[in-house]
């Protein structure tokens, strides 16, 4: 795109210093005097236009800065070109050009470039001979066209969504601008906007921008890299999209994988979710039956262990009592308890007869008998080796928490394709909250 940069239009220094804002008023007065003096050199004073009026008309016509119009008129007068009708029309052509184009034209065309006799020129489209004052030119090569021809050509190019190059010759690289379209008679805002978008598109393609996919949003985003896909955010409509496929940005998936991921999700919504929940309910019933059997066996094992522990405690207490109250028969080693009386003892019955029990009948003194030695045999409970049933649909997702219910995720985990870290558990998905 061309800019209105300050480019010198001739080798002669202008009487107006446009860069000094403090001296603008004095310079404008000097310019007016200078222009009026140079205008008097013309051969046809009756047809001359006032320089200030010409400058004002050029500014109103082109909407460009006044200094551009002043420099252009100044260059005409410095080359002793009178401001007659021919020069007036030519100035209106040139004011639409960029300053570098104007400078190039004035350097390569002699002051007599505007003939005084209104010459005929050939339209480069229809090839008819027409008055030069009734033609348009848009390039440095001065290719000229009838108003009807250039207007029809421009409309056809825009209709085909093409830029409008100067149709004069192959070597002409000039592309018609939006301002020049207005000059040749295209004033419809929709048509001008369409062409402006074409110009922007060409410029954007040169710097490899990515168009925002939002309808009616014409913004372009420049990705930070060209090879890999990345998330782009439109600064105008704030939509996030992929720099490669221009769909909503997809985390954890390549562009080529997105269609299958989306198809899988649609299939899950249509049939997959219901089929999974049905299977899960059936498996849950089987799992519950197996779990009941497991818990029953585990409870029985625990109760047996408690019974054995109780017997062991009772045996220890019995052994403690025997240690204190009993001794051993010197002959057979049988446990002897002295109930009362003297120390004379007989194994298997009272020393004076009666109370017959199992024993060897050996007689001995209680004080001479060996003390009782406690002995407790601990019964070991067999390990519980029954395997715990497992539900096949369950899986461990580590420390992940559901972003909806904020509980640990058990079972299926649903991750949003277009969110950086949104995860939902299967219970919330079943409720339609994913």
Low-confidence stretches: 1-47, 111-116
In order across it, which strands form the biggest sheet? 10-9-13
The span between the termini is 49 Å
The shape, in one word, is rod-shaped
Query: Structural class, judged by helices and strands?
Result: alpha+beta
The overall pLDDT average reads 77
**How big a fraction of the residues is strand?**
5-15%
Based on DSSP secondary structure assignment, what is the total number of beta strands? 17
Count of helical stretches = 10
Q: Helical amount among residues, as a percent range?
A: 25-40%
Largest sheet: 3 strands, antiparallel
Radius of gyration using CA atoms only: 54 Å
Helix/strand order, N-terminal first: HHHHHEEEEHHHEEEEHEEEEEEEEEH
What key phrases describe this protein's structure?
single chain; 434 residues; alpha+beta; 10 helices; 17 strands
Please give a structural write-up.
By secondary structure, this protein is an alpha+beta fold. It has helices spanning 24-39, 51-62, 66-78, 85-94, 99-108, 147-159, 178-184, 189-206, 258-325, 426-430; strands spanning 120-122, 129-131, 136-137, 144-145, 210-211, 220-221, 231-233, 240-242, 326-328, 335-337, 344-346, 363-365, 370-371, 396-401, 408-410, 413-415, 423-425. A three-stranded antiparallel β-sheet has the order 10-9-13. Strand 16 and strand 17 form a beta hairpin. Helix 1 packs parallel to helix 3 (66-78). The chain is rod-shaped.
Explain the layout of strands and helices.
Blueprint: H1 24-39, H2 51-62, H3 66-78, H4 85-94, H5 99-108, E1 120-122, E2 129-131, E3 136-137, E4 144-145, H6 147-159, H7 178-184, H8 189-206, E5 210-211, E6 220-221, E7 231-233, E8 240-242, H9 258-325, E9 326-328, E10 335-337, E11 344-346, E12 363-365, E13 370-371, E14 396-401, E15 408-410, E16 413-415, E17 423-425, H10 426-430
Antiparallel strand pairs: 1-2, 3-4, 5-6, 7-8, 9-10, 9-13, 11-12, 14-15, 16-17
């Amino acid at each position: 795109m061309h800019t209105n940069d300050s480019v010198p239009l001739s080798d002669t220094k202008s009487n107006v210093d446009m860069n000094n804002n403090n001296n603008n008023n004095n310079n404008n007065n000097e310019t007016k005097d200078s222009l009026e003096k140079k205008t008097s050199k013309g051969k046809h004073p009756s047809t001359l236009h006032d320089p200030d009026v010409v400058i004002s008309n050029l500014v109103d016509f082109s909407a460009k800065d006044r200094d551009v119009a002043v420099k252009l008129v100044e260059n005409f007068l410095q080359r002793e070109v009178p401001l007659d009708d021919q020069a007036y029309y030519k100035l209106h052509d040139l004011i639409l050009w960029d300053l570098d184009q104007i400078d190039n034209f004035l350097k390569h065309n002699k002051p007599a470039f505007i003939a005084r006799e209104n010459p005929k020129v050939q339209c480069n489209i229809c090839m008819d001979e027409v008055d030069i004052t009734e033609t348009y030119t848009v390039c440095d090569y001065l290719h000229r066209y009838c108003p009807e021809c250039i207007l029809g050509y421009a409309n056809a190019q825009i209709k085909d969504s093409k830029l409008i190059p100067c149709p004069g010759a192959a070597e002409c690289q000039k592309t018609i601008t939006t301002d020049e379209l207005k000059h040749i008679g295209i004033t419809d805002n929709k048509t001008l906007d369409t062409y402006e978008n074409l110009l922007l598109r060409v410029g954007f393609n040169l710097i490899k921008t990515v168009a925002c996919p939002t309808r009616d949003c014409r913004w372009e985003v420049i990705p930070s890299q060209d090879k890999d896909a990345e998330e782009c955010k439109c600064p105008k409509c704030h939509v996030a999209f992929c720099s490669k496929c221009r769909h909503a940005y997809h985390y954890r998936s390549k562009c080529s994988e997105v269609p299958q991921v989306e198809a899988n999700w649609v299939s899950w919504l249509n049939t997959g979710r219901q089929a999974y929940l049905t299977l899960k309910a059936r498996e849950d019933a089987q799992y519950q039956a197996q779990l009941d059997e497991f818990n029953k066996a585990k409870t029985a094992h625990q109760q047996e262990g408690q019974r054995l522990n109780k017997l062991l405690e009772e045996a220890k207490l019995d052994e403690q009592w025997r240690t204190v109250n009993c001794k051993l028969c010197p002959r057979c080693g049988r446990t002897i308890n002295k109930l009362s009386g003297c120390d004379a003892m007989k194994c298997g019955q009272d020393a004076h007869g009666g109370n017959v029990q199992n024993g060897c009948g050996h007689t001995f003194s209680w004080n001479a008998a060996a003390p009782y030695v406690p002995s407790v045999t601990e019964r070991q409970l067999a390990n519980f080796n029954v395997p715990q049933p497992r539900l096949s649909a369950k899986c461990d997702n580590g420390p992940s928490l559901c972003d909806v219910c904020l509980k640990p995720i058990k079972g299926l985990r649903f991750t949003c394709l277009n969110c950086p870290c949104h995860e939902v558990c299967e219970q919330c998905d079943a409720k339609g909250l994913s």
